[in-house]
């Protein structure tokens, strides 16, 4: 129907121009930002899922750093106990040498002097080994395995949720070791004093088994730390795998497919040009009414 008051073709074409312009603007925004979803209007459900995935990914990234820091702390502690092992082996050598009949009193005096020095170093290691400025085995004023970070159970956050934790409790083993070291040397004390542990053959002979027991305690503690470090290493690998897959999942939701969106933009540009041209042509429809009246 021809009408001076209503140009149906112009109205339809105007609506098409607006729709094409909106679609073209959306395509250009996506290509400009690199994201398919730039607001909740684009995909409300997809945005919600992607946000949860991003929160999970970021949580796992922090947990991965936690595991690495945990492994580093365990390595510092394990390295200290490796040196404790070396010292105890040397002390056992001295006790064994002092226990034999061929050793003289002067020999035993020299051996005892070295034995005392080694006992002092054991105390130094237990008192002063630290990680990040915090003592690991002792508060620094005691030598009974209390007051340090490893004196209590440790809880590591190894995931993005509150349930993902890992507990390492080496406090009992540390306490047993501290007791064993105190039985070996009087220098391993808050108030050290020169000892007589291997000053005669009988005492030296008894010290051999005492040191052997202490070595077992060190081995037990080192095995706990090693097992915890190995587990943290596996946790890190698993988190890395999950983080990669979760990031890819979020990418499939959020990121724009440039090949598809570029083709879509080109289509909308052509439609925009065509609809604009038809809008210009539709304005001439009212002139047909005048031709009927001539």
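^ Assign residues to that structure.
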């Amino acid at each position: 129907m021809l009408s001076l008051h209503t140009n149906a073709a112009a109205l339809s074409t105007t609506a098409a121009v607006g729709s094409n312009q909106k679609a073209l603007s959306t395509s250009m925004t996506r290509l400009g930002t690199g994201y398919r979803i730039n607001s909740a209007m684009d995909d409300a459900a997809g945005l919600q899922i992607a946000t949860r995935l991003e929160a999970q990914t970021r949580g796992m990234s922090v947990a991965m750093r936690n595991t690495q820091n945990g492994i580093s702390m365990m390595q510092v502690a394990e390295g200290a106990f490796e040196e404790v092992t070396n010292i105890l082996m040397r002390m056992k050598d001295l006790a064994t040498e002092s226990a034999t009949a061929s050793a003289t009193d002067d020999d035993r005096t020299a051996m005892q002097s070295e034995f005392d020095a080694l006992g002092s170093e054991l105390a130094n290691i237990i008192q002063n080994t630290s990680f990040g400025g915090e003592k690991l085995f002792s508060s620094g004023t005691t030598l009974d395995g209390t007051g340090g970070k490893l004196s209590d159970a440790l809880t590591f956050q190894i995931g993005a949720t509150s349930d993902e934790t890992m507990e390492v409790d080496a406090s009992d083993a540390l306490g047993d070791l501290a007791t064993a070291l105190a039985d070996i040397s009087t220098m391993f004390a808050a108030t050290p004093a020169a000892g007589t542990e291997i000053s005669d053959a009988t005492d030296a002979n008894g010290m051999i088994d005492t040191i052997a027991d202490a070595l077992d305690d060190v081995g037990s503690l080192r095995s706990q730390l090693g097992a915890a470090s190995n587990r943290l290493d596996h946790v890190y690998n698993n988190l890395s795998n999950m983080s990669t897959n979760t990031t890819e999942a979020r990418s499939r939701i959020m990121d724009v497919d440039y090949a598809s969106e570029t083709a879509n933009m080109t289509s909308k540009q052509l439609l925009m040009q065509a609809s604009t041209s038809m809008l210009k042509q539709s304005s001439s429809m009212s002139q047909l009414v005048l031709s009927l009246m001539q």
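The chain has a mean pLDDT of 90.
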